[in-house]
Every structure is written in C-alpha cells, then in structure tokens.
Hints:
5 strands; alpha+beta; 5-stranded mixed beta sheet; Glutaredoxin; binds glutathione; 10 helices
Amino acid sequence: xxxxxxxxxxxxxxxxxxxxxxxxxxxxxxxxxxxxxxxxxxxxxxxxxxxxxxxxxxxxxxxxxxxxxxxxxxxxxxxxxxxxxxxxxxxxxxxxxxxxxxxxxxxxxxxxxxxxxxxxxxxxxxxxxxxxxxxxxxxxxxxxxxxxxxxxxxxxxxxxxxxxxxxxxxxxxxxxxxxxxxxxxxxxxxxxxxxxxxxxxxxxxxxxxxxxxxxxxxxxxxxx
Length: 224
Ligand SMILES: N[C@@H](CCC(=O)N[C@@H](CS)C(=O)NCC(=O)O)C(=O)O
C-alpha cells in the first residue's frame, strides 16, 4: 500500500501555515502530526534535520523547508496557478519571499519577541520591518494581490508573516494607513482557505490514529 506523506506541523507557525496553504490548494492529502515545539516528538526529531516545523516526509524523501514543501505540493498540482503569476515572473516572487524570510522576519522577531533580544529596541525593529510593508502596500494599492488580480505563491508565502506582524499590535498596525496591505490581509483572514488550514489539531503522539489534512469531508455532505 502506498504510504501517505507525513507533515510535521505546528498550527501557529507561519512557515507551517504557508506549507499547509499550498498543500490544501494543491489537493494533496497528508497525515498531519501536530508538534509541540518545547517538547518535540522523537519521531519528528529523527525526521527533520533542522528540528524545525514544517517538515514533510514523502516516502524516503524529506522536505525540511516550508518553501520547498509549497513547491512539492504545487508542482504536483497547481489548480489556482500559484506558480504562474499574472504579473511578473517566478523570480520576482522568489525575490520577494527571500526578503520576507530574511530582513523582514529578522526585524519581526526582534519586534515581537523584543524581551528575548536585549539589544533590540522595539520601535526601531518595528520601523525597519515596516520598510518591507510599505513596499508591499505600494504594490497592493495598484492591485488586490501582489502579482495582479489573483493571488499567487508570493502572497501565500508572505501573508502568514504579515499576519504575525499585524497581530503583535493590531491597533497600531491598522493606524498606519496601509490600506492596500490591510485589505489584502483581511481578504486572506476571511478566506475559506485560511480557515481550513487553521483548524485546531490535538498534539500528535506515536500510535495515534492518523489525522488527515485537509480534513476528509464526510461523503453525505461532499455532494451538497
Ligand atoms: N527555514 C525553515 C524555518 C522553520 C522554523 O523556523 N520554524 C519554527 C517554528 S515557527 C521552528 O520550528 N522552530 C524550532 C523551535 O522553536 O524549536 C522553514 O522555512 O521551514
């Protein structure tokens, strides 16, 4: 019997969220194992070389980076054409994602977790992270999504991090005048896709019955 791919995940982790978004839209089904970061399951530690979530095990193949998991899913099936942006090209999307994962994430962590970084000045970190957000807002004032009228890979790779930034101080965020950015984030937070990937899963332990992701829709409701 063909083994189902296993996704080690953590509900609130923005990297894991983006992996789940791509898996969900691609129509792949995986076995989801919810990991508690302060007490990582030994099976997860044996699988993930970096000991970070998300980590996907597909047979003998281990995919340990969230962006690679997105590509793993979308290269199998990309019904909403996330890999084919309406405006620009994939290189442009990867450049934006690199900026998100690099400098933006660096300042986001130092803003959100400033007490863990004794040399960080919260407002300074927030302002540096905001440089990236101003640029996103600029693009999002011209079109509802980063690459035009429909969303693509860059939107879903970046949105979980912008959401984390926004939720650090939502009142401040909403007062910055980023109207394109705010609409973009709100459209994401209202979407069915977002809600489908933010389901609450119980912590996984070896021996538990497999939890499928996306959830199986019971046969009697799926035809309605
Ligand atoms: N580059 C990795 C980073 C993943 C990452 O850092 N995940 C965090 C959770 S949001 C993690 O697992 N940290 C390990 C820990 O807290 O022990 C990826 O894109 O998947």
